[in-house]
Amino acid sequence: xxxxxxxxxxxxxxxxxxxxxxxxxxxxxxxxxxxxxxxxxxxxxxxxxxxxxxxxxxxxxxxxxxxxxxxxxxxxxxxxxxxxxxxxxxxxxxxxxxxxxxxxxxx
Length: 107
Prior knowledge:
By secondary structure, this protein is mainly β. The chain has strands at residues 3-4, 11-14, 19-22, 26-31, 34-36, 43-46, 62-65, 73-74, 77-78, 86-89, 95-99, 105-106. The radius of gyration is 14 Å and the shape is elongated.
């Protein structure tokens, strides 16, 4: 299924309401005036409310992407889409993509 491409200012949070942002972007590929993000770029998480051990295994600090586009690449790496799946460390929970640009689709 096609999905909208993720970009720098897409709204992404951890499952515990922490704000997730890419640690870098691809600055020369823009959608809606914002640089895109590829699968190999990790996200940093700030403001996660999951308690640290021994109460839980949080807070979320970083996230890596498990899935991405299968037909759209930048610099040889798949671009991230609104339905891309991720995992946060150390909690093991996913990132939630709540808003992206709505002009450019990829598969």
